Amino acid sequence: MSAKPAMLEGIRVVDLTTVVFGPYCTQILADLGADVIKIETPGAGDAFRYSGKPAVTPGMAPGWMALNRGKKSVALDLKAEADRAVIIGLLREADVFVVNVRGKALERIGLDYESLQAINPDLIYVHCVGFGQDGPYADLQAYDDVIQAATGTTTLLPRVDGDPRPRYLPSLLADKVAGLHAAYAALAAVVHRQRTGEGQRIEVPMFEVFSSFMLLEHLGGLTFDPPNAPAGYFRQIDPDRQPFPTADGHISIVVYDDGALQRLFPVLDQPDFLAQDHLATPRDRMRATAEIYQAVARFTTQFTTEELLRRCHAAQLPAQPVRDLAGVMDDPHLQEVGFFRRREHATEGGYFEQAAPVRFGAAPAHREVSPPPLHAEHTDEVRAKGWQAFAPEAD
Predict the structure, then answer these.
(1) Which has the least CB within 10 A, 22, 27, 31, 34?
(2) C-beta separation of 71 from 15 below 8 A
(3) Nearest alpha carbon to residue 339 among 362, 323, 357
């Protein structure tokens, strides 16, 4: 085992969050070495435990397994005085508290920032909320679908394919993006506290976070006053800028500049295509983007995906085959870098864990973290030992 400490070794995190937004934040902190105690409700626990088919135990769904390794699960009824005393005891010694309960409910049980600051002035309090608490939506509930709708994200696909129905992008994008923002906010606050000794309250509103994320490129011409073009980044909503068909599948080829465009057509055995008079200059070719993409889609069908991939890579053209979700685990690059690690769970048997994707040169190359916990698995241990449950002799 490596003698190097984990990046966040010794940082204590109390996690009072559910589903994806907050748990993704605390998963990142756990992967970096923080001690994370996840507080769940007695009975069923976090609803995301039931987000898919478990291998053995109800409440151990695939999504839960992916988001909760390295944490200890403690079931507490925060309406009960004795259980509130347990979490208060943990928070007296905690460095970070990540919570996604709405503010008024936190006040009722004494877990609002002001109450906790009185017992732990150095505490970093990360409040994961749906909407900024100084706006008219402050008390509204927020889920990924709601945020995709409110940010205009559901109108992106209609811009691409002409089908006017608003549609969700089939990923928990808003939740995951907000979780990443919460993680970097917590880390920045840890650095700030190390420099100044000052704890603080941090608000991470999903609506504002995802608005910033999506409108980075899609505010488009509305960036200027007065606007000089519609909303939407033209490259992303181009209906012809899609994976190209091949003889046996599809391939993604990115032609980002005119030099790449000129390398592409010889790859497709069409060296004279751009010699047409109306495609004589880079400006002409930019104006004819739709025609060019449509032509590429015709020419790529003459090649297998593998052959075209070899040709594109030889010509320094970014390209990857279109894989089905079920085939990504077979990707040779991911296999070589050890991205999917097979592990054994005490109750669930064999499962695959996705490696933390960021590598730190000053940290251990690989650090084994504890498997995702069963519901309430560590309640008795934490009640008895508090943060000492993370001491080596408790493993």
Answers:
(1) 31
(2) yes
(3) 357
Question: Would you kindly state where each structural domain of the chain is located, as residue ranges?
Answer: 12-213+333-394, 244-321
- Residues paired with residue 252 on neighbouring β-strands, in sequence order: 320
Helix, strand, or coil (residue 313): helix
C-alpha 94: how far from chain center = 25
**Cβ of 356: how many Cβ atoms within 10 Å?**
19
Say if residues 25 and 186 touch (Cβ distance below 8 Å).
yes
* pLDDT of res. 393: 60
Neighbours of 196 (CB within 10 A): 9
At 318 the three-state DSSP class reads coil
Structure tokens at 325: 């979700």
CATH topology assigned to domain 244-321:
formyl-coa transferase, domain 3 (3.30.1540)
DSSP code for 390:
G
Handedness of CA 67, 188, 95, 88 (dihedral sign): negative
CA gyration radius, the chain: 25
- Count how many residues are written for the chain: 395
Q: Contact 31/64 with Cβ under 8 angstroms?
A: no
The pLDDT of residue 4 is 82
Token duo for residue 226: 């007065």
Using CB atoms within 10 Å of the CB of residue 163, give its burial: 0 to 12 exposed, 13 to 18 middle, 19+ buried. exposed
Write out the two tokens for 77. Answer: 């009824």
User: CB of 293 within 8 A of CB of 355?
Assistant: no
Secondary structure of 136-161 in the HEC alphabet?
Answer: CCCCCCCCHHHHHHHCCHHHHHHHHH
Residue numbers in the chain where pLDDT is lower than 70:
1-3, 365, 393-395
Query: Residue 316 in contact with residue 253, Cβ under 8 Å?
Result: no
Phi, psi of 298 (to 5 degrees): -75, -45
User: The domain 12-213+333-394: what is its CATH number?
Assistant: 3.40.50.10540
Q: How does the average pLDDT of the chain come out, rounded?
A: 96
pLDDT for the residue numbered 1: 44
Residue pair 98/26 in contact by the 8 Å Cβ criterion: yes
**In this structure, are residues 85 and 379 in contact, taking their beta carbons and an 8 Å threshold?**
no
* Residue for token pair 């840890």: 190
Residue 43 burial (C-beta neighbours within 10 Å; 0-12, 13-18, 19+): exposed
In the block, tokens 């390794």 appear at: 69
Angle of helix 258-267 relative to helix 305-314, nearest 10 degrees? 130
Element (H, E) at 126: strand 124-129
